[in-house]
Amino acid sequence: EGHYHGWLDNVLITDRDGVWEAASAGQLSSHLDDTLVLPWNDADVLADVLEREGERIAAVIMEPIMINSGVIEPGPAYLERVRRLCSRYGIVIIFDEVISGFRLGLGGAVRRYGVTPDLALYGKAIAGGVPVSALAGREDLMHRIGTGEVNHSGTFNGWAPGMAAVVATLEYLRDHPPYASIAEYGTKLMAGLREIGESVG
Fold first, then answer.
1. 2 lies in a domain?
2. Which of 140, 122, 119, 143 is nearest to 131 (CA)?
3. Number of domains in the chain
4. Res 70: pLDDT
5. Does the active-site annotation cover 44?
6. What value does the mean pLDDT of the chain take?
7. Which of 7, 100, 153, 167 has a CA 20 to 30 Å removed from the CA of 41?
8. What is the extent of the structural domain holding 84?
9. Residue 187 domain-assigned?
10. Is the residue at 48 inside a domain?
11. Dihedral of alpha carbons 91, 92, 98, 104, sign
12. Is the pLDDT of residue 181 over 80?
């Protein structure tokens, strides 16, 4: 709930007056028939759903930090519990790090929280803003793409200028990590905003 996973019909869902429905004209409501929306940071709800429906659920997808609806970090041990639940039921857990990946650090939320998903998605931050996306994951899942069992084709797959931008960006971030400065500036900004808020009541 509150996460954004792109303009993909079966995950582009909105809450209008307490009813989960397609977020855009032109979406087929049937695309949402196999999608459940669960509250963020509530592993108990996920546990209840998996106890009832675990055999039918293929994957759990989430932003490891809810960034689309403001920045809400996962609660203590939330990601670890989700990881354990998905492993117990044989469900693929997917971290959508399109926004969080490479902005939090070279290892993204995966390294920050120490929880490894089965699949992770990354966006153009991996290439310094050049339009590139990346999918990383467990070897057995990724192998299915290589064998053709899972079709993943596109005119930009392996795009050489994009791949060069990825290498250059990752090497630069490794050799000149900006993350301590970003954290310091962020802390100062938050302190200043709190001070302003308190001064105006």
1. no
2. 122
3. 1
4. 78
5. no
6. 89
7. 7
8. 38-200
9. yes
10. yes
11. positive
12. yes
Q: How far apart are CA 162 and CA 76, in angstroms?
A: 37
Active-site choice (113, 118, 122, 124): 124
175-201 in b/e burial notation, b at 16+ Cβ within 10 A?
eeeeeeeeeeeeeeeeeeeeeeeeeee
**Which amino acid type is present at position 40?**
W
124 is catalytic: yes
Residue 7: pLDDT band with limits 50, 70, 90: low
CATH code of residue 118 = 3.40.640.10
Within a domain: 70? yes
**Among residues 96, 113, 118, 122, which one is catalytic?**
96
Q: Cα dist. 6→25, 37, 75, 146, 190 in Å?
A: 15, 15, 24, 25, 29
| CA angle at 41 for the pair 72 and 86, rounded to the nearest 5° | 125
Q: Is the pLDDT of residue 82 over 70?
A: yes
Known catalytic residue at 9: no
